[in-house]
């Protein structure tokens, strides 16, 4: 793995803050919302993390991390429209929940990838992006996302209008 540049360290710090605040927000409020302070912190740090990801070019070209950043920005935009307008009508809270939760999934994919390919320093858990363990981790993340979103949507459905 290439060395981390200063922008990469900032990107990583913002990503960690986003992951912690997103996890806290879901655990405490059952949804990520711009109405809570922790939700605001999550959304801002997610925006910064996705934006800085677009400026990091380890291989000199657009790669999977950039695609995840674009998907994150799109999910943030859709979730924010759902949270602040009535464009989606009665489905707005559901669209917001799915969109903002998707951004958390999009954070976890590179976090797991970089974590397993970089740590522990000098003797990382994995040595190749093609390792089957990494693919299994992605499957587990997807399953956690689907279960989590299902529980979240059920919770939203049970809330008063």
Structure overview:
The protein has helices at 6-29, 37-53, 64-84, 92-118, 132-158. It is an all-alpha fold and 161 residues long. The protein is built from five helices and no strands. 72% of the residues lie in helices and 0% in strands. The protein has one domain (6-158). Helix 1 (6-29) runs antiparallel to helix 2 (37-53) and helix 2 runs antiparallel to helix 3 (64-84). The model has no long low-confidence stretch (mean pLDDT 93).
Tag the structure with descriptive keywords.
mainly alpha; globular; 161 residues
* Fraction in beta strands: under 5%
Query: How do the SSEs run, as a string of H and E?
Result: HHHHH
Taking all residues together, what is the mean pLDDT? 93
- State the low-pLDDT regions, or none: none
Q: Please tell me what the overall shape is.
A: globular
Total DSSP E strands: 0
Question: How do the strands and helices of this protein lay out in sequence?
Answer:
Layout (H helix, E strand, L loop, with lengths): L5 H24 L7 H17 L10 H21 L7 H27 L13 H27 L3
Helix pairs in contact: 1-2, 1-4, 2-3, 3-4, 4-5
Q: What would a concise description of this structure say?
A:
This protein has 161 residues and is mainly alpha-helical.
